[in-house]
């Protein structure tokens, strides 16, 4: 009888220990929230870096200069017409 009682107590202790080791739903959501926040930060940093690289790229600079020249040319023509 003692052996059965000892085995039962050990089984209860083992079950209590394993249940204590499992994450609760709250802990899982907290970990998920942290992972999503980290992913959002990484994505924002990558987007910022990509945008900065594009702004300084040769294509962007040439396009910006071309539009500026066209605007100045149009402004000069409108000034001539107005006089």
UniProtKB/TrEMBL annotation:
InterPro entries named in the record: ApoC-1_sf (IPR043081), ApoC-I (IPR006781)
GO cellular component terms, A-Z: high-density lipoprotein particle; very-low-density lipoprotein particle
GO molecular function: fatty acid binding; phospholipase inhibitor activity
Pfam families: ApoC-I
Keyword list, A-Z: Lipid transport, Secreted, Signal, Transport
Subcellular location: Secreted
Signal peptide: 1-20
Biological process according to GO: lipid transport; lipoprotein metabolic process; negative regulation of cholesterol transport; negative regulation of lipid catabolic process; negative regulation of very-low-density lipoprotein particle clearance; triglyceride metabolic process; very-low-density lipoprotein particle clearance
Similarity comment: family membership: Belongs to the apolipoprotein C1 family.
Protein name as catalogued: Apolipoprotein C-I
Organism per entry: Sander lucioperca
């Amino acid at each position: 009888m003692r052996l059965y009682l000892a085995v039962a107590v050990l089984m209860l202790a083992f079950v209590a220990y394993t249940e204590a080791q499992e994450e609760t739903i709250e802990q899982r959501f907290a970990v998920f929230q942290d992972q999503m926040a980290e992913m959002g930060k990484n994505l924002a940093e990558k987007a910022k870096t990509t945008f900065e690289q594009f702004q300084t790229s040769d294509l962007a600079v040439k396009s910006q200069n071309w539009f500026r020249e066209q605007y100045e040319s149009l402004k000069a023509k409108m000034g001539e017409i107005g006089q």
